[in-house]
Amino acid sequence: MENKYQKVKDGLKEEIISGKYKIHDKLPTESELMQQYAVSRYTVRRAVGDLESDHFIYRIQGGGMFVQDWHKDWSAPADTKLIGVITTHIADYIFPNIISGIDQVLSQAGYSILLSNTHNTHQKERKSLISMLDSKVAGLIIEPTQSALPNPNQDLYQEIKDDELPTLFINAHYPTFDFPYVDTDDLAAEQDLVNYLFGLGHESILGIFQVDDIQGVNRMNGFIRAYQQRPELSYMSNIIMYQSGEDTQKLFERIIGYLKQHDAPSAIVCYNDQLAIEVIDFLKSQNVQVPTDVSVVGFDNYQMGEYFTPSLTTINHEKERMGADAAGLLIKLLNRETVESITYHPEVVERDSAIQRVKPAK
């Protein structure tokens, strides 16, 4: 009985917190919940009673059950030294370096960090935000999740703003909220990267961009702008768009489709180094030589890219510096000082995966 009761309680609570049921939305009836969870009426009433005591649900006599304004008093105690850090990932790619930069500065100032990751999904972002707020953190450093898409968690961000909880964004920012941020001029950097390839004689270039993150959208726009400034080459541009979580095999099939064309791209620009390394591995499996047959470049200057074969041409990313700068700005916010956002202007890192294009003999 205990397991069934807890299943109903946790299931309803999860649906409320996740935003499936908004504040003042009507919930399913007891009979509907009995059918949904295959439990008795007593079990449903016990679970609902607990949620009512926890201020997640209220009843209207003869009208049913509704979602209560369950948002709590999340203001932090004055002496708390805990900072919440939410990124899309934690243990891989560039994130350990960013987090290390954050921790070094905050720990020197007497703060500790509480980490969470969203795996770039809004549902997990919501859970992370609520967990941080429940922990009464003194401030937040957040990497936005799927920042190019409408965000269903704006109610929580609005509450953070209304509560004046010191908060800033890294890598990207939501334009609907004026929290300060530390990010990169992705558009200009990508434009520089494409111009670098033009300088190597590449004219037909394939760009592959993740478009549910604003970084990917900006990088794609930089790719497009570079071609706009070379109108004689515009017709030779090629773009593949994808979203996080998509099947990479389908992405690879599309790449091969482009490479089989008569006017096949001689270079591929990838959304980031992680994708570039995967693309190079795939091309090797198809007996396509990088960079002899096609040049491949990335973005972010991932540490492994320097030791990969061929070493990866890319755009620098101020990983540790970004973390340290973000932590420094947050400390100022905690001290109620005025801060200005920071945008980096990174440079091309030239390595072996992009070479001068050799035009085929006529």
UniProtKB/TrEMBL annotation:
The keyword Transmembrane helix does not apply. GO terms for molecular function: DNA-binding transcription factor activity; transcription cis-regulatory region binding. Gene3D superfamilies: 3.40.50.2300, Winged helix-like DNA-binding domain superfamily/Winged helix DNA-binding domain (1.10.10.10). Keywords: DNA-binding, Transcription, Transcription regulation. It holds the Pfam family Peripla_BP_3. The keyword DNA-binding applies. CDD domains: PBP1_AraR, WHTH_GntR. InterPro entries: AraR_ligand_bind_dom, LacI/GalR-like_sensor, Peripla_BP_I, Tscrpt_reg_HTH_GntR, WH-like_DNA-bd_sf, WH_DNA-bd_sf. PANTHER family: ARABINOSE METABOLISM TRANSCRIPTIONAL REPRESSOR, LACI-RELATED TRANSCRIPTIONAL REPRESSOR. This is GntR family transcriptional regulator. It comes from Levilactobacillus suantsaii.
